[in-house]
Amino acid sequence: KSVAAVDQAAAALYAELQGCGIEVVLDDRGLRSGAMFADIELIGIPQRVVISERGLATGQLEYRRRDAADSEMLNKEQLMTRIRADSP
Question: Which stretches make up the Anticodon-binding domain (predicted)?
Answer without folding.
Answer: 5-85
